Amino acid sequence: MEAFDACYGRVMSKFVLLLGGSVHVTDRLLKQVAGARVLAADGGIAHAAPLGLTPELWLGDFDSTSPELEKEYAHVPRQVFPAAKDMTDGELALNEAYRLGATELVLCGAFGGVRTDHTLLHLTMATAHAAQGHKIILTSGSEEAHPLVGGEYAFDFVDKTQFSIVAFSQLHGLFIDGARWPLENVELSFGSSLTVSNAVCGTLHVSLHSGKAILIAAPPVA
Asked: Which residues are in the Thiamin pyrophosphokinase thiamin-binding domain (predicted)?
């Protein structure tokens, strides 16, 4: 999907990356992926059909792709990599999306599955890219995550949506408004649970002077 950003004078291009975690199809998720260009990382291509998506490229070492998926998506162009490589299939897909001009990314299937290490990588990798100015969200449909770096954020979650903010560094000047437990100009240490298990009350706004964190929310499923 491409649109023009008048503020920056550039064409906006949204990409969806299909990863190997869990996906629960919801109306919210379908809206988030609608009209986007799609790349699949290895076994993540299994999410294409349930989401009504057609990948333009399939990347990875294909160690988690079943024979059935191989046959079903034999028509999709591939980039095949050796199993002994320096990046995960997800990071390869992310880098390829940027090479193709992505300005906004939705990492679909970023949570769950059998690889906790991959989930943690997706969260930290997304936050690192957000710190470089990239727009990126992660989702399984039942959960979604938004990297927080210095700046102001507004979210479209409905009332009572549960959310947590997990710090990846010391946080300076953290404000939370539109929540059951608001905060004003808080210093939050790495490893603190202060910002875990909150709930939206109105329109959620978060601002952060400096630091890196991620907001994880569980939007209600109709």
From this structure: 151-214
Superfamily of domain 143-222: Thiamin pyrophosphokinase, catalytic domain (3.40.50.10240)
Beta strands in 19-76 (DSSP E): 37-41, 57-60
Return the sign of the alpha-carbon dihedral for residues 83, 88, 94, 98: negative
Q: What is the mean pLDDT of residues 36-61?
A: 94
| Residue entry with tokens 């938004």 | 146
pLDDT greater at residue 67 or residue 45: 45
Torsion angle in degrees (nearest 10) through CA of 61, 67, 71, 76? -20
Closest CA to 107 of 216, 19, 215, 14: 19
Q: Which residues are within 8 A (CB) of 115 and not within 5 positions of it... i.e. 6 or more apart?
A: 20, 21
Stretch (H or E) spanning 186 = strand 183-188
Between 101 and 222, the higher pLDDT residue: 101
Residues whose CB falls within 8 Å of the CB of residue 87, separated by 6 or more in sequence, listed in order: 95
Residue at 40: amino acid letter: A
pTM above 0.85, yes or no: yes
- Fold exhibited by the domain 1-142: Rossmann fold (3.40.50)
Give the span between the Cα atoms of 102 and 120, in whole angstroms.
23
- CA atoms of 79 and 59, how far apart (whole Å): 5
Q: CATH 3.40.50.10240 region(s) of the chain?
A: 1-142, 143-222
